[in-house]
Amino acid sequence: MITYKLTCPSCTSRLKSAKPVPAGRVVKCPKCRHDFPAPAVKINIPASNNPALKAEERSPEKRGPGLFWGMVASAAFIAVSVGIWWTKSHSISQGARTTKAQSSQLKAVESFPKNGSIVQVPIPLQETEAAPPKAEPVPMSVKVEPEAGEIRRDANSAANSKIATPKDAEAPAKDETIKVLVSGNPPLTQDFLDQLTAYGEWLLDIQMTPPQRQEWQQLFVNTWKKADPKSKESFLANAQPQLKWYGEISKLTDEQRREIRARQQPWFVATLKKASNPEDRFLLTLYETGHRPGGDRNPILVAGTTPLAQDTLDKSRMFSEWLLDVGLTDRQRQEFQQLFINDWKKLPQASKEIAIKGAVEGWPSQLPMLNNYDRNLLRAQLQPQFLASLEQNPRHELSRWLLEVYQSAHKLDGERNHVLVPGKTPLTESIVSQYGDFIEWILALKMSGGLTDAQRQDLRQVLMSDWQKIDQAEKDSFLRLLKRWNAVAQLDDAARSQLHQQLQPQFLAHLVSTPDHEPSRWLLEIYDREQKLVRLYAKELQTQKTHPKKSSG
Predict the structure, then answer these.
(1) Is there a smaller number of Cβ atoms within 10 Å at the N or the C end of the chain?
(2) What is the pLDDT confidence band of residue 179, given thresholds at 50, 70 and 90?
(3) Burial zone of 308 (CB within 10 Å; 0-12 exposed, 13-18 middle, 19+ buried)
């Protein structure tokens, strides 16, 4: 079973939760009763005790067709079971134990290259783009009052302002008479409720029938009538930015929208499960009915005692794409599905049960809960292990297929590794990406969630410009840094933290020593902003400790 761990800042008690606690949510310590905001999630996935799995570990040469689904484990290496995600995935917070081989790696990265080339590649000095508003789903309910009628649309009215949806995102706002379901300030309009309905359907990946839509809207109206004005205003303040964001994603590709939904849906479902009002319970029932194995949104692909449903397969595919950093075409997705199904038919019952449990509790379901910093670090940790497991299983068709897809995408000038600057030592997308991951780690950008897309794009553009100016020795030194970073990522948390304490002061000292270097100033600005967030968080904890919130009764 997966456990989520927190530490009370007041009494230092170690708290555990069976469910993820969103960062920032106020948690009450059961021991000292202190309230504190939850930090970013730390996940601990214990090793499986399944006898069948242990048998497979003891006899790797006898696994046969199910090899991809089994696991080979050592102190520092974990191979895959339905990919690496299904079973003994290492926690971000715990990692693997440091082996003798890793100890030698640790010594190899104890200091930076003396020529300072790690920061010689310039980065532009500019304000970063504000991150898009987080679309953490709001509950579909509030707590309200009066009646129906008709009013003219008022451009200044928050409740009546037109918010685009994917179907009408480009349509200009019209000055038209709209139906008011519940009058008041603010009023509830049919227009707003229709947008809210469409958003909920998309986010939950459900399709209401006309009677279901009518029933849900009536439940919402009933709740709205009972809510007080302050609750209405609060709900609208949260819902409207999300509906506006929902309209904006119509400009994205289908794959991008699916990825966004995969990341947002778990939060929304968790919100619905905590709700007690009828409209939220109604939505949750529709979601669970549609997405249960055999439901209209989750058909059974392989029948049996432990059937394979579409959701299990889709989660494994999406996680594979993320972990290998590839984008499968429609044809490749069909190939993956067929190979996955073929494997499933050969699996023993125990392995199928592990796979189903992994789909619910493993990395595929946990990944949406992580910020970019944790996701990037997790991939840096797991990808080498996953690739090694694929290479060790050349006779396993799905393993061989995945490895070929990865190698094709990441070869020089492949889809995921375009040559940005040609030459004897070319600059590629992979180099830029790894350097961005290193910068996130060395500057400890965990609180803010890592570099923004705009910052990474800046990094890419200037690396391209500078790569043409630096000599071969500097390029070689830079690449050695990335090789060392890859070794650092494989260390356990304790060893990596120890190394960070040694390297970050060196890195910051180098930045400070080059005040005329624009990229150095820019990196220092990013670091300073991160430290302000850390201090603000610490101050909030102290404030809550000194002035705990009074119970509302």
Answers:
(1) C
(2) confident
(3) buried
Distances (CA, A) of 87 to 63, 336, 371: 17, 20, 22
> For 511-527, what is each residue's pLDDT tens digit?
899 888 888 888 999 99
Which is more confident, 27 or 410? 410
Mean residue pLDDT of the chain comes to 75
Classified as helix, coil or strand, 249 is helix
65 near 76, Cβ under 8 Å? no
The runs of H, that is alpha helices, within 48-136 are 51-58, 100-108
Please report, to the nearest 10 degrees, the dihedral formed by the alpha carbons of residues 241, 243, 246, 247 taken in order: -100
Please report the DSSP string for 137-162 in residue order. Answer: PPPS--------EEEE--TT-TTTS-
Rounded to whole angstroms, what are the CA distances from 439 to 119, 384, 512, 550?
Answer: 10, 20, 16, 42
Name the pairing type of β-strands 177-182 and 149-152. antiparallel
Cβ contact 165:246 at 8 Å: yes
The Cα–Cα gap between 451 and 446 comes to 9
Q: Is residue 209 exposed (0-12), middle (13-18) or buried (19+ Cβ within 10 Å)?
A: exposed
Confidence band (pLDDT; 50, 70, 90) for 148?
very low
> Is the pLDDT assigned to residue 412 strictly greater than 50?
yes
